[in-house]
From TrEMBL, chain A:
Keywords: Cobalamin, Cobalt, Isomerase. InterPro entries: Cbl-dep_enz_cat, Glu_mut_E. Transmembrane segments: none annotated. The lineage of its organism: Bacteria, Bacillati, Actinomycetota, Actinomycetes, Kitasatosporales. Residues 436-468 are annotated as: Disordered. Residues 436-455 have a biased composition (Basic and acidic residues). This is Methylaspartate mutase. Signal peptide: none annotated. It comes from Streptomyces viridiviolaceus. Pfam families: Met_asp_mut_E.
Automatic annotation (TrEMBL), chain B:
Residues 1-20 are annotated as: Disordered. CDD domains: B12-binding_like (cd02065). InterPro entries: Cobalamin-bd, Cobalamin-bd_sf. PROSITE patterns: B12_BINDING (PS51332). It comes from the Bacteria. Residues 11-20 have a biased composition (Basic and acidic residues). This is Cobalamin B12-binding domain-containing protein. Residues 24-163 form the B12-binding domain.
Length: 468, 169
């Protein structure tokens, strides 16, 4: 590709960004996992530096702009206050900065070889989508359920309405020649202790919701849980359900490194991240969202993120897909698949309008997220980690799983008991001192911008930032 | 314990009078306006219930006005604020001003804890600022936090004891 032309017309590049979904599928199809940080900084300078470093990282990467949580809840005055007083924000306030500022953050970094996704966590995302559309930021993440129930007190009905509106608006980017991409966050509900079958059911239902409202380029998330075996089963089940239910081929699976209480040690954090990379490759997922050694404590630095991307890439290169990954249906019906399918069918049977069906499902307890305190969640279900480390149902409440799962007698939940379950993964990985748990290639962990990136698609782009 | 309170209550769901006769008092647990995290709130609710108090858990993303209003109505013996998303410092400073501006809440014990900023660099200064602004106790994230919090709760005045509580806990 002739880069001179691109550098000469950067505005045009911004106007016609690549389809994020297609980019990832092509990159992964050529034999490698795409890795991505969950990165967001409060100042344009840091945000730009973070994107540039992600692009340069020795791995096949895509970029992320994660928004701060004042912006997520629409507290724009608090953003102003923080910016005026130099108080650190936990993400990039895209609605507050003038569009020129954000354009200058992306300028020359975002490109055909480096798409950028915006991640937030808002059930009232109208202003955010307005910014995305104006800036032609054509990849984002969310869901009417997954950006509502774990994220505050917006009523689910409002969230469904808001997300319908925003999905349609986003879909109209196609009229301008831009393909919008949305990733479901449903595979991460509450970060932890939500059994895999329900995660993949919600992820799939949200993808159907987006498709229903016009989005044609999709990805479906699944977050690593407590058991590697069970996680493999879950990703394969999700892929099979996608093939069965999604009316498009433009989808891929994104695995998230563990989204719950993270190990505090370096070997623990890298061990867990490495297992997430392994899971992604084994099961035929195309993309991995990484977590860093700083996860248990504070917002990670750019260097923390680059180290994580590099480690995940190195581990991924040493792993081969499972035989079942070629044809997830051939593996037969796992229990995770059966449970998830029961949930999906039960919700789809509630009506043709998927938003309404989701509302009814939560109202009647057909879907019920363990430990989710949102007023629109039935709060009858409970989960637990069994002796083999699998995340199972202790109580299925009114979900249509009675015939598949025998609810165990709910144990009394104590503060200490809850903390033990929440810390199960942390404890295990912090203890393990297996050889594979140290950074796979310590030397590559150092930020080495001068090193030639191994990158798919555009092997020798001069910076890819257009300045080289 | 086997009361229904051992499973976390819905936010803002309260069962008036339930167990209050036996409880040591009433505690409001709350997140702050921008913070969506809830595991911290569920954990604190259980912990404080196990210390013998009745808990009203307001849940995450509680707007300042709502928290002030709930506290005025409930007249709790203690308010526990938790934030882990890194904005707790800013949200918390604004919030305590509003609570203390309310006449009936001038002397109510209010504690705050969690991961209160996006880095550990200024943890001490931030804790001092929050205390100076009106919090009775600040518990920055860390192993010691929860143990210190138990001690703090242990020495709170116990209004319902003097009202003749027969707490069997
Ligand atoms: C699960 C999780 C989520 C889930 C939350 C789901 C839910 N409804 O709760 C999801 C995925 C939705 C999420 C979202 C976000 N998260 Co989050 N999340 C976590 C994670 C992985 C675990 C938190 C947890 O469940 N802990 C279990 C509970 C029981 O413990 P705890 O919260 O740590 O609290 C302990 C102590 O702090 C203490 N404590 C807490 N409060 C109080 C109060 C008092 C008075 C006392 C005495 C003690 C006390 O008691 C607890 C037990 O020891 C942490 C990282 C980690 N710890 O591994 C990040 C983390 C808290 N999240 C973080 C951030 C920034 C976010 C986001 C803004 C997204 C982003 N930019 O990454 C959004 C928040 C949006 C918003 N509006 O707030 C950051 C905060 C950074 C900081 N403070 O510097 C963390 C640390 C990750 C990181 N390193 O970046 N998150």
């Amino acid at each position: 590709m002739n880069l001179a032309g691109r550098e000469g017309s950067p505005a045009v590049l911004g106007e016609f960004p690549v389809d994020f979904g297609r980019f990832v599928r092509e990159a992964a199809g050529s034999g490698g996992l795409v890795v991505q940080p969950r990165m967001g900084f409060g100042t344009p300078t840091e945000m730009r530096a973070g994107l540039a470093a992600t692009k340069r990282a020795p791995a096949r990467t895509v970029g992320t702009v994660t928004l701060d949580s004042f912006t997520r809840v629409g507290e724009l005055e608090a953003v102003e206050h923080a910016l005026r007083h130099g108080i650190g924000l936990n993400g990039y306030p895209i609605v507050t900065y003038p569009d020129e500022v954000t354009r200058s953050v992306l300028q020359g970094i975002r490109g055909a070889d480096f798409p950028v996704q915006v991640r937030h966590g808002s059930a009232t995302p109208m202003d955010i989508f307005a910014s995305l559309v104006r800036l032609r930021l054509n990849a984002t993440e969310g869901g009417p359920v997954s950006y509502c129930l774990p994220y505050g007190r917006t009523p689910l009905a409002d969230s469904v309405r808001n997300w319908e509106h925003c999905s349609r608006r986003y879909a109209r980017l196609r009229d301008l020649g831009v393909e919008p991409h949305v990733e479901t966050f449903g595979g991460c509900m509450l970060g932890q202790l939500c059994p895999p079958s329900q995660l993949i059911a919600i992820s799939l239902l949200e993808a159907l919701f987006f498709h229903h409202h016009g989005v044609r380029s999709l990805s479906l998330s699944y977050a690593q849980q407590t058991s590697h075996e069970q996680d493999r089963e879950a990703v394969l089940a999700l892929r099979r359900l996608c093939a069965e239910f999604l009316p498009t081929d433009n989808w891929h699976i994104v695995v998230y490194a563990y989204m719950g209480v993270f190990p505090v040690t370096e070997h623990g954090a890298y061990g867990l991240l490495g297992d997430a990379a392994r899971l992604a490759v084994e099961t035929g997922a195309a993309r991995l969202i990484v977590k860093t050694v700083a996860e248990s404590r504070r917002i990670p630095t750019v260097a923390d993120n680059v180290a994580a991307l590099s480690h995940a890439d190195t581990v991924a290169r040493g792993v081969r897909p499972l035989p079942e990954a070629g044809d997830p249906a051939a593996a037969g019906d796992s229990r995770t698949y059966e449970e998830a399918r029961s949930l999906v069918e039960a919700v789809l049977n509630l009506g043709d309008d998927i938003g309404r069906a989701l509302l009814d499902a939560f109202r009647t307890g057909c879907l019920d997220i363990p430990y989710c305190v949102h007023p629109d969640n039935a709060q009858r279900s409970r989960s637990f980690i069994d002796a083999d480390g699998r995340l199972e149902w202790a109580d299925t409440g009114r979900m249509p799983l009675g015939h598949r799962v025998r609810s165990r007698r709910a144990r009394t939940v104590t503060a200490a008991g809850l903390l033990t379950d929440l810390s199960y993964v942390r404890t295990r990985y912090d203890r393990e001192r297996a050889a594979h748990a140290v950074p796979a290639d310590a030397e590559r962990i150092a930020v080495t911008p001068e090193r030639e990136p191994r990158r798919h698609g555009a092997p020798n782009s001069p910076d890819r930032a257009g300045t080289a | 314990m086997s009361s229904p309170h051992t499973s976390p209550a819905r936010p803002a769901e309260r069962e008036p009078g339930h167990d209050t006769a036996r409880a040591r008092g009433l505690v409001v647990v709350s997140g702050v306006a921008s913070d969506a995290h809830t595991w911290n709130l569920v954990f604190l609710q259980l912990l404080i219930e196990e210390l013998g108090y009745e808990v009203v858990n307001l849940g995450p993303c509680v707007p300042d006005e709502m928290l002030v209003e709930e506290c005025r109505l409930l007249e709790p013996d203690l308010v526990v604020i938790s934030s882990v998303n890194g904005h707790g410092h800013q949200d918390g400073l604004r919030l305590i001003g509003r609570l203390r501006a309310c006449e009936s809440l001038v002397a109510t014990p209010v504690a705050i804890g969690g991961k209160l900023a996006i880095s550990d660099d200024n943890a001490e200064r931030i804790a001092r600022e929050l205390a100076a602004a009106g919090y009775d106790a600040v518990f920055p994230d860390g192993a010691a936090g929860v143990a210190e919090f138990r001690n703090f709760v242990g020495v709170l005045p116990r209004p319902s004891l003097t009202a003749g509580s027969r707490s069997g806990a």
